[in-house]
Amino acid sequence: GDHGGVIVAVKYFKTEGDTNTLLYSTDEGLSWQQHKFYPTPIRIFGLITEPGENTTVFTMFGTEAKPNAPIDWIIVRVDLASVFKRNCTPEDYKNWSPVSPGQGKASRCVLGRRETFLRRSPKA
Predict the structure, then answer these.
(1) Which of 37, 80, 83, 120 has the most CB within a 10 Å radius?
(2) Computed from CA positions of residues 94, 98, 99, 101, in that sequence, does the dihedral angle turn out positive or negative?
C-alpha cells in the first residue's frame, strides 16, 4: 500500500508464510519499521486502501493459519496516522520530475512531455 507519505508491505502467505506484523516506511523506503497488527500469525491474502483516497488507513484480509480449516475471513484495519511525528509544512515538499528508464537525469521528458509534481521530501 502507498498513501504518499507512508508505504506499507505485508507478507503474502503463499510465498512468504503467515505473519502478524507489517513493515512501513515514511521515507520512501530508505528505512522500515515493524508494526504488530494481530495477536497471532495469520494468512494474508491482500492489503488494500480506498481507491483515490489520501488516507493512512490500510485494510488487510486473511484467515487463521490452520491448514484444511474452513475459511473464516479476518479483516484487519490499521491506521498509521500516529507514526507521523508532526504535520508537514510547505518546506517539507519539493518539485520532482520523472525520467525515462535508462536516460538518466539528462532526459526529464517521458513520452515527449516534461511533468513536474510537488511531492513530500523523504526526510520530512
Answers:
(1) 80
(2) positive
Highest-confidence range of 35-39, 55-59, 97-101, 115-119, by mean pLDDT? 35-39
Is beta strand 33-36 parallel, antiparallel or unpaired with respect to 21-25?
antiparallel
95 phi/psi in degrees, rounded to 5? -80, 145
Rounded to whole angstroms, how far apart are CA atoms 83 and 26?
Answer: 8
Reduce the DSSP state of residue 107 to 3 states and report it.
coil
Nearest to 64 by CA among 45, 92, 90, 89: 45
C-alpha cell at 42: 495469520
Q: How confident is the model at residue 93 (pLDDT cuts 50, 70, 90)?
A: confident
User: Which of these, 87, 86, 105, lies nearest to 97 by C-alpha position?
Assistant: 105
Which set of grid coordinates corresponds to residue 116? Answer: 513536474
